[in-house]
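Fig. S4 source data, part A: sequence.
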Amino acid sequence: MLLHLSIRNFAVVKSLDIDLAQGMTAVTGETGAGKSISVDALGLCLGDRAEAGFVRSGADKAEICASFDVSKLSLAAKWLKEHELDDGDDCLIRRVISSEGRSKAFVNGTPVPLGQLKCLGQYLLSIHGQHAHQQILKADTQRELLDNFAEHPGLLNNVAQHYHSLQQKQKIYRELLAGQQQRADRFQLLSYQVSELDEFSICDGEFSELESEHKRLSNSQALLEQTQLSFYQLYEADDFNALSAVQNSIDRLTELQDHDPTLSPILALLNEASIQIDEAAQELRDYTDQLEIDPMKMQQVEARYSQALDLARKHQVKAEELYAYHQTLTQELSQLSEDDQMLDNMQDEISALEKLYFKSCEQLSLSRTKAASKLAKQVESQIHKMNMGDAIFKIEVEPQVSASHSKHGLDSIQFKVSTNKGQALDKIEKVVSGGELSRIGLAIQVISSHNSQVATMIFDEVDTGISGSTASVVGHLLRKLGETCQVICVTHLPQVAARAHNQMFVTKFSDKKTTETHMISLQENERIEELARLLAGDKLTDSALANAKELLQISNS
């Protein structure tokens, strides 16, 4: 519920503070006084686009603050909590617009983007403008009005979810189908390449081993000759070998050690060297014993090594990467096979999703058909009271199975009306006049509002084109709506204003330099005078005042 509205330097308003109450509040005033300014200001609090022209001339910024009680607005309270903007039962929205047209928005003191402000606003209040009646001529608006009245969000969500699932699956199917020939060509190439690599069947790390083996076998003769010579010089040479030379040095220094103990460390090193030479010689002997020159093995290694290099050059990869490349091609070939299998399976999946989609559309259509009958009866009942006693109002819901899929279902929804006896039902835009459209539109808005979870509804001159007894019926409708929620109605009709629980008067003051708009709450005597002005014009007569007093008494009885 809207508790307070504060406006500073907005359009012709310099400063305005309004306390708002439960029930129906009528806002009246002279033409051009600025009755709709409060509505425009609230629109900005709901995230409407800001313009530099909104700032009062001479001011550097405009500021609008709207205070709401969200204790009974579960959706708004939930949204505030989810976005960590909650402050108990209070919700304060503040919008600041600079003279350059830049704006900032705050919720409970925290800056928020306009997208979040719009999202929150839909849970706080709804605004029905004076051109809202024209919207009901649009097919989308007719569908939305019926769905809101039917209160079946679960069915709408089911249809939307199945629609999006179906669309996503069909998109993948189309992409796979479009690339089928390309995949077939790629599959043929990969099949040959993988078959060739499968036949060679190189193992992980095998090329490095082949390379080492190839080098060893290619140099086996030199390895044998040089290792044998090294063994001979280290160990077997009779005239002189390294081990004998070291042993001779150890023998001589051992005799000298008694004369000079500082030779001991050197002697220790020589002893260690003797051991190392002896072990190295034994290792060389073992190496030369196992080293053999095998032309057949050399031929085998040479052939596989060369084949690996040839395949690497053919596939334009490094030879050591041949194994990894083979695995990559094998995996890609497997994926292509899976894609073709997926294409076959996907047709069944799409068929199953279509069945789910059509079933959910059928359930939604049944619900819409039931709601259409109920809503049409209520609208027809109301417009009969608005001087359209012969009118017939119907809502046709026709499933269009051949129509393209939509997240809103497959129904064609049309509001049809006949305003005179013997006149055939036809689309609403082909039958009604401007005044009749206003009455039908207002009836639909009021009836639909009963199902709204928004606690505050604003009607901005929606009674345009209505007068007399019809206006009285409209006022009665709005007052009845005000018994369950907060209704703010900008009107120029005394029959509507008299029905309000509360009334506010908008006046404009000008000193020839600047213009200001003020809004004040009217007491009973002031209401009578304002109603008299609406009835008879600016000149208040005793008769007009008496009529206004009687109208107010009748309306509140």
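Fig. S4 source data, part B ends here. Residues 115 and 151 are 25 Å apart (CA to CA).
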